[in-house]
Amino acid sequence: MKVSPVDQAVITQALTAAADEMGIKLIRSAHSPVVREAQDCSAAILDRKGRVVAQADLIPIQLGSVTHTFRACLEHHPLETLREGDFLVNNDPYSGGQHLPDIFLFSPIFLDGALVGVTATVVHHIDLGGGAPGLNPDAGDVHEEGITFPPSRWSVERDWNGGPFERLVRANVRMPEATIGDINAQFAANAVGGERLKSLCRKFGRDTVFAAMDEMLDYSERRIRAAIAAAPDGSYRGEAWLDDDGRGEDPVPVRALLTIEGDSIAVDFEGTAPQVATNMNSPFASTVSSAIACIKAVLTDPDIPFNEGAERAISVTAPYGCLVNPRPPAPVRARLLPSYRVVNAVMNALAGAVPDRVIAPGFDTTTVSCISHKHDRGYNIYLEIFGGGYGAGPGNDGCDAVDSMLSNCSNIPIEAMESDYPFFRVEDYSLRAASGGGGRQRGGMGFQRIYRILDDGVTFATYGDRFRFAAGGLFGGGPGAKAETLVERGGQRIPLRSKQQFPLSRGDRLIVRTGGGGGYGPAAERNAELAERDRLDGFESNPE
Amino acid sequence: MRVGIEVGGTFTDLVAVEGGTVLTAKVPSTPASPDLGAMHALDAAGLDPAEIEELVHGSTVATNAVLERKGAAVCLFVTRGTRDLLLLQRHDKHAIYDLRYRKPEPVVARRDVFEIDERMAADGKVLKAPDRAATARLVRQALAEGGYEAAALCFLHAYANPDHERAVAAIIQEAAPALPVTCSSDVTREFREYERASTAALAAYVQPVMAGYVSRFSAALAKRGFAGRFSIMQSNGGRMPAEAMELNAISALFSGPAAGAVGAVRSVAGAGFRDLITLDMGGTSTDVALIADGRPELASMTRIDGLPVKTPVIDIVTVGAGGGSIAWVDDGGLLRVGPHSAGAAPGPACYGRGGDRPTVTDAHLVRGTLRADAFLGGRMAVDPEAARRALEPLAVRFALPLEELADSVVRLAEVSIVRAIQRVSTERGRDPRDYVLVPYGGAGPLHAARVAEDLAIGTVVVPPNAGVLSASGLLLSDHVHYRTRTRRLAVSEASMGAIRETVEALQAEARDYLAALGIEAEADFDRVLEMRYLGQAFEVPVSLSGMDLAHLRAEELARLFGEAHRRVFEFAKPHGDPVEVVSFRVGVRAPPPPMPAMGRAPANGRAPPRSARLTERGEALEAGLLARAELGPDAMTGPLLIDDGSATIYAPPGWTAAADGHGNAILTKGTGP
Question: Per-residue pLDDT tens for A494-537?
Fold first, then answer.
């Protein structure tokens, strides 16, 4: 069936709009600041075969996993067995998921008794149990990181709203009101998407909508393939390193071999370090999403809809048991760290193929700042995700103090934090004025956050990277500044490791500094006007 | 005589009312000094400023100052530790796959931001008061070096307690008595420091520009004998005396679209239409707004050039679909229209000003819904051959007859408009079928019926003077003043007293403010409580306008919130789940005198006098052709093209058109296929 150009445009726009609307409603009805302020969540619409056709522009790494988590659900509960009122859940890193806090919730949508599609939302939940509130940096396996909900089917009427699944969740998390509230927001967003999908099917007829969905996938595939075909054929190598595994001192390499052949790309991670004992392993779904996100960002215009069609032209392989394709039960909570080195290694390889399309390495690290407080009535857990400076591009300075490429979390306003978390106060939130790598184009700057702790019984937990290896410059540009975390206590400065848990007491000052991005081209070629502007504003490039 | 003058990007429109007569004029705008265009409009209409009792003005002066970065040199004072507030923003990207992403550029540079050693707690308790002497020293030094034309302040938690902002503002005023000073707590009393700081900085940035413009314009008018009342339109759809606007320029940022929406509401109110969706389609973009019960909804935040502005704005959604939007084929082979526009220069290919890209206007000429001999009422020559040439390559690409390709281009533009209307309706839990569509602007009436059809709206109401409706809106607008305050209160019988007191205090403040300007307000107040379930971060507005506050019970308030929440989110929690009020917004208004009725002598409408050929929805049609004045109370059957001076009204097959007794043209969808 061929859909007219006009109907195709209407249906494409309507489905994209419906996914966006799901995202907006999810954020606006959620309870935890990590969702409602930081927006660590995503939404998507899948077709009747379970393929992602439209996504809200939220968190790239989560979006890349929607397909894989749903496919794992289907292995246990095939499409034809789904019934109206069912929902499916999966947060298992070893069944297509990311890390445990990201719960994928799917609602099959029926019209006149027939399945017309599936709506999906992902939320980073503030706490799902495990060995420490919000984040357990010491976990030795995935079980110490929290509760796993394997790919499974439930019934809204029977199992939610006081039913067994809701009680199971409630019994296993430290902030049940927030978690149940956030899952309710997922249900609400899924319902909104479902309504939009049904009304589209009523208006155009199911078969037209199905045909238009097929075309959406083909369309993205065509555009990605056209972009790949324009890049020179060949094999290109790239690599990147993590500082360490969080305990030892040895750097952990990620190596990529990228092969462009006609209109397809193959990426292989042979030569990457073996999986590590700490939480810095990248589940394979994260690795695939990261590699594809990087290739898409480098080679194509940002307006190509990201759906399953985009993945058809790119194949990703990695040895089983390595850092980017770990064996269970390896812990994976900090999976974005290796995922970012996947991005860096792939970008590094692409620099050989299309040097004028890549950017310098950025800080490209997720720094988690998790501060929890145990009080008489339970827990209060603050969690925020920090980016840093972007790498500079051939025609632009790197963006300052912004979330890195695979994520897109907002900050939590100081005024919201201090009203929700009375156990600390923010004394400083500022750019690190000399943290961007020098260059013809300057790397983006990182930032600093200083918390004053106001009560005892407070714990800080974190993971981060680039404490030892900065983001390097490209084509003669300088490196960005490294990251660091310190505690000031009674006149003493205690440096913390990039991955650790640390008890805090009243009066402590906790200082978190994120790093800058690398510069692009030699600094001597920098435009004088830009240099003067930086000088007037008190910005310098990283002295290293 | 009462006169409204609206300065737009391309044209300056004027509407004058004297006794029972209405006079209109349209002249080209003069972007370098917009007041000149306004004077030209007065001349074109042959008006003597000495005879004008009341002049209402709307302009894009404030908007352009931001878009072109031609505002004042502003210094910003912030809490210690937050100097980079405007650069850090919200740490997110508005385009997630863009490797070369840049954040929106703030209007105040880092070198002009100064930290004050002061601190409030979240509950408004003072943690550290600013030291008077040290602050005075810092302020004097900052001002001595900067050459600033305005100052802004944004301190943490000033929404909860503005004392420190006020104290430091006083110190600044002592040091520089002539310098305008804007406190964030005066601009908006809501939490989230970046959004509040951005608003305060923008307010200070446009302040001197607007004040200069208003005083220059006032002086020029006075020189020509004008001695009447002079007021200016605001983004919230109400107006303020010009002298007050000099102190509150930020509220004029979106005055143009607001004037249009008010014009639409008031123009069709006489005929009994109170629930409407407005559609203003111009050369580069289309604005739509949803109006329930005759009251435009206000959004509490909007953006300009990517920067957040937290002042009440009529909730208008803009999409990049206008007559100048360009049709093109992307690298995936999809036919697309917009968002790139040929604008006014070079303009559509048919304008013959050097444009060769095919636009929506060209497509209309080719498919016959615009006619070369009657373009802008016959006042502008266009080249239909140039339009055909521009569209030809697309027709070849898709193997479609030229007229059908043109038809597809128009329909794709309509798809974007439909999408904009869904954003203000279905996405907010409103069913478009409960509304009539009110189109205006040059191209609105041409697309309205088909857009309505896609949304299952059965009635289109084209108001009188649709081409200059924004200028009418100025004369039809109320004097309006809003007050907002953040005050978190859990809803319970015990807190109802505090809720009532807060609303009453805001009412008194708003009323006194207008009274001080010599304006007597109505007894009715707009009262909106921003509410949420305990634990949520985003609020849902709950209107208490027209309610008896003295007898409002907590249970009733919670129920009203539940209904509003269900409308937006399609669910509400079980009754009894804790609910809180987060902020209050109260508005007071003083209405203008009524416009004269626009009744027309009914013509004998049966068969349209002339006809024209056109292609629409894939079909070749013979459409009836008439002037708007020839439309009578008896319904004519579509397809019809109705010339309305600077606009064309299209009634498709299956629709009828008739004039009502209030000057509106009513298009109605038949019950047939």
Answer: 999 999 999 999 999 999 999 999 999 999 999 999 999 999 99
Check A538 against B535: CB less than 8 A apart: no
Roughly what angle, to the nearest 10 degrees, separates helices B384-398 and B402-424? 90
B571 and chain A in contact, CB less than 8 A: yes
Residues of B in contact with A447 (CB under 8 A): 84, 88
* Å between B232 CA and nearest CA of chain A: 34
* Protein fold of B479-590: Dna Ligase; domain 1 (3.30.1490)
Q: Is B641 left (phi over 0), alpha (psi -120 to 50) or beta?
A: beta
Among positive and negative, which fits the CA dihedral B431, B437, B438, B439? positive
Which of B100, B194, B400 is most worth mutating to test chain A (most A CB atoms within 10 A of its CB)? B100
Q: Is 0.90 exceeded by the ipTM?
A: yes
pTM, full prediction: 0.89
CA distance A149 to A152: 7
B150 bridge partner residues:
B74
- For residue A541, the enclosing domain spans 359-544
Answer whether B394's CB lies under 8 Å from B327's CB: yes
Pick the CATH number of B70-205 from 3.40.50, 1.20.59, 1.20.1370, 3.90.1580: 3.40.50
Residue A55's SS3 state is: strand
Cα A251 from Cα A245, distance rounded (Å):
8
Q: Which of A222, A250, A271 is the last residue of a domain?
A: A222
Q: What is the pLDDT of residue B605?
A: 56
Kindly determine whether residue B335 and residue A5, on different chains, have CB atoms separated by under 8 Å. yes
Whether residue A190 lies inside any domain: the answer is yes
The Cα angle at residue A534 between residues A530 and A537, in degrees rounded to 5: 140
Domain ranges across chain B: 70-205, 325-413, 479-590
The pLDDT value given to residue B601: 42
CB contact under 8 A, A536 and B415: no
pLDDT per position as a tens digit, B141-179: 999 988 999 999 999 999 889 999 999 999 999 999 999
Q: Is A399 on the interface with B (CB under 8 A)?
A: yes
Q: Touching check for A111 and chain B: CB below 8 Å?
A: no
Task: Report percent pLDDT > 70 for chain B.
Answer: 96
Residue B318's DSSP bridge partners are: B287
Contact A146, A137 (CB under 8 A): no
Co-location of A218 and A364 in the same domain: no
Query: Which residue does chain B place closest to A360, by CA atoms?
Result: B99
* Residue B216 scores a pLDDT above 80: yes
Q: Which of A32, A415, A447 to mutate to test the interface with B (most CBs of B within 10 A)?
A: A415
CB-CB neighbors (< 8 A) of A537 in chain B: 109-111
Asked if A217 and A363 sit in the same domain, the reply is: no
- For residue range B627-655, what is the model confidence (pLDDT) as tens digits? 888 888 889 998 999 988 778 999 999 99
Residue A315 lies in a domain: no
Give pLDDT < 50 ranges for chain A.
Answer: none
Three-class SS state of B274: coil
Residues 6 or more apart whose Cβ sits within 8 Å of residue A215? A3, A8
Encode B358-420 in three state secondary structure: CEHHHHHHHHCCCCHHHHHHHCCCCCHHHHHHHHHHHHHHHCCCHHHHHHHHHHHHHHHHHHH
- Supply the DSSP symbol for A325: B
Domain count, chain A: 2
Contact B538 A304 (CB under 8 A): no
| Residue A88: inside a domain | yes
Is there a domain that residue A289 lies in?
A: no
Distances (CA, A) of B10 to A65, B34, B339, B344: 48, 11, 19, 8
End residue of a domain, out of A222, A243, A265: A222
pLDDT-derived band at B270, boundaries 50, 70, 90: confident
B157 interfaces chain A, CB cutoff of 8 Å? yes
